[in-house]
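Re-run with default settings, no changes from the original entry. Doing this only to confirm the output is reproducible before filing.
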Amino acid sequence: MADGILASVNDSVITGFDLRQRMLLLIAMTQVQPTPENLPAIQQQALNALIDERLQNQELAKYAEDGLRISDQEVDQEIAAMAQEVGATPQAYLDFLAQGGIRPQTFREQIRTQIGWSQLVRGRFQSRARPSPAAVDAALRQIGEAASKKQYLVGEIYIEASRVGGQQAALNGANQLVAQMVQGAPFQNVAQQFSAAPSAARGGDAGWIVEGTVQPALQRALDQLEVGQLSRPIPVEGGVYIIYMRDKRDGSSVSLVQIKQVMIELPEDAGEAAVAAATSRLEALRPQLTCDNILTRASSEQGLLGADLGEADVQNLAPQFQQVARSAEVGSVSTPVRTPLGLHLLAVCGRRAGGVEAPDRRQVEGQLFAQNLATLGRRYMRDLREDALIEMK
């Protein structure tokens, strides 16, 4: 590979030396052994990464005057964290890279760009990425509804066809990566360097996937894979997936709901006229009730009793309450429900999956924020690419 100019990105060039350095770094980071078959994929991935890095640096330069500058100390801290993950000192880590032909200064500048780009994306988009309370509520509802379905803890690598020269190139590249991982290349390292999925930054960690929420081809793979198995490449529209099955579970049957109620006491043998009168009164009151005011209204009117039932497993509720607890929308108030104690209106004020692994509201909010931020960052990068003048020599 010649040392001349291979590509230009606006007014910045990529040389043969730059590309060799990035290929060596990819090989060192992923522990993928270069072969005649996989070298084209390594070269293409390295070139794509360099183009993105040039565009990121050009964008970062626009914000340098506003104080967006990454210090040597920040770079040192990031390298120290990377070294700690593999049980090495920072100097030993840099020495290891140098033995592979990678110049420490080249590596440091790449890390500087990564840190700067992450800060720029967060600074520009954090207000837009923050999920609304309604979005968090919807996600919690979905988690609650999925609690009893099969769930799969997976790692994923996604090879995007448009970035590697087409679907066949993506499939060929995925086959090469699978072969390398079978021979010992760590899945997380390969995902960080080759995957186009948002999970790449987390080493391909896609978290728990719920049955029925992925494409049919992926669902078939999830059903067939045993824990600890790596899938063959799975072609989908636009690219190819590789899945690593980290764990499986049948799902929790525990569904927790928060319920408040207002009731009119009626003995079990109350006559039809008394039941009809109580029903009419509660029906007239129901449109005025919310989770916020139901207890206040109950305490302000004679003949009504209010109670906050707190959070409980649906299965532990009175049988007459269980259908409302399972199916009513959060925030809604039920029609009158008859029990031996009386006539009740039930307000369903929250619902979530049970079990120690069920995420709470803060965790879900954090997950949605990270997903939104990653999506906005990818769009930002796509727009920069579309507007750039990229020439291959």
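The first strand starts at residue 5 and ends at 9. The CA atoms of residues 60 and 120 lie 7 Å apart.
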